[in-house]
Amino acid sequence: MPILVVLLCLLLASCGGGGSSTSPTPTSPNTFRISSNGTISPREMSVAPGTRVLFVNDHSRRHDMSSDPHPEHTDCPEINQVGALNTGQRRETGNLVTVRTCGFHDHEDPDNASLRGRIVIR
Ligand SMILES: [Cu+2]
User: Fold this and answer.
1) Is residue 20 part of a domain?
2) Which of 12, 29, 99, 116 is deepest in the core (most CB within 10 A)?
3) Distance from the alpha carbon of residue 78 to the mean position of ligand 1, in angstroms
4) How much distance in Å is there from the Cα of 70 to the middle of ligand 1?
């Protein structure tokens, strides 16, 4: 009998009475991070339609994350919502609702391969 109760709890995820299904973990799994050596990682990420992606800048200088192509930034305007990130700042994209591949770059350093990447929405 107790085993059955535990199984029901796992299936329904509603035991405990909190009523909240949000995780207390503050960091999103869908995160691009610019490290202290100025390299973004990962280089490519696959997400489901409707996902927001977080950009975190741990580098000692500002980076302006923008959609390809440079300088128009027209492919995936949701990425342009990230914009300029000073050291220590983080910001999300808009909802990436269209199934496609979105390239991005640092608008202030557009040819730097260490700051280019892709989001595959599928
Ligand atoms: Cu640009």
Assistant:
1) no
2) 116
3) 14
4) 4
Q: Is the pTM of this model over 0.85?
A: no
The CATH number linked to 73 is 2.60.40.420
Instruction: Dump pLDDT digits (tens) for 41-83.
Output: 999 999 999 999 999 999 999 999 999 999 999 999 999 999 9
CA distances to 27, 95, 102, 119 from 50, rounded to whole Å, are: 18, 5, 14, 12
Domain that holds residue 64: 28-121
For residue 18, how far is the Cα from the chain centroid? 28
Q: Using the mean position of ligand 1's atoms as its centre, give its distance from the Cα of residue 101 in Å.
A: 17
Looking at the structure of the chain, the number of domains it has is: 1
* 64 CA to centre of ligand 1 in angstroms: 8
The whole-angstrom separation of Cα 93 and Cα 78 is 5
Task: Compute the distance from residue 80 Cα to the ligand 1 centre, in Å.
Answer: 9
User: Is residue 45, in this structure, part of any structural domain at all?
Assistant: yes
Report if residue 85 sits inside a domain.
yes
